[in-house]
Protein 1
Amino acid sequence: MAFYQLIKEQKINCTIDALWDFISSPSNLKVITPEYMGFDITSENLPDKMYPGMIISYKVSPILGIKTTWVTEITHIEDKRFFVDEQRVGPYTLWHHQHIIEPIENGVLMRDIVSYQPPFGFLGAIANHLIIKSKLKEIFDYRTVAVEKRFGLYQ
């Protein structure tokens, strides 16, 4: 079984409070996801802020416009430091995503560590090499631009 990690860092021109308010609000997930993914939150009555144990369900179309149900749980939160989401239902055998933020000079460093395992063993490893790895990078590159549009370029 193949296991992979994507690690992405971004320096952001804002305060830790402003970034935390943005990333800890479930409604902002759609803002930082490419439109072609067809990302729709299907959970009803979501609060303004995430909390440990929170379940969020979505519909996404990551490949060929095929709608997929994805359910994640917010498993850990430390206010203004990090939160973790883990897939409960969805396309991966394993999905563990750490969102870590820390103050730096003139802004905030945001680090994402995504640990994942595609389904289907050997076939999933081939799919990761051919499609998944580059698709995840593309999604996180999109998010980098979306966050820069919201908070400005890091100076």
Protein 2
Amino acid sequence: MKAYSLDFRQKIIDTYLEGGISQRQLAERFRVALSFIEKLLKQYR
């Protein structure tokens, strides 16, 4: 499986920071696993 690009990861983070969307909704919107979202945001913090 190919790693996600930094641009894609940043887009997810930016969307989350805009507010009003849960981690589960992010996962559905970007079609990735919830665990990926959780790890990504944990690393960001």
Protein 3
Amino acid sequence: MRFLSKLALVALLALGTAASGQAQGLINPLLPVRGTREIEFRGNFQFEPVDLFNVRLSYGPFLSERIQVGGSLDYAHSDDADTSTIGAFVNYHFPGTSATLPFVGAFLGFSTGDGDESTSYGLQGGVKHFLNSSVAVTGALVYRQFADDTSAGEDNDVRLQFGLAVYLR
């Protein structure tokens, strides 16, 4: 039941951002187009009930103005464990006339840490707000589910992450 409520939360975020980001005509020239490559650094920090930080570095080219695929490296540190994850993602964007670009996506990753290994998958939704054609601040709500009980020291979770992205055109 927890999984369904978290999935519903991510779906509501995705629908809200999709509705606000639909193009009504021209697309803002700041937004990525086919061939644009994104390098993003984002993370989150938590202090209660346990100390936790998570950082992510990702790279992904845009196949079109809406579709982006890529790979990511994550590192998480908590009171219980250190975990490293290598993964792949696909994001669907909703370009419009605004400098804010909403997106939804899915990802798959392989985690290892403290002698444990696990596969994880999940959903994400958020926004990228372009400061200029080469830099954007990002925010995403991320739900991650582990495929087995040996979750490399972590539980299934929902995280709000913030970051910075650089675009190579």
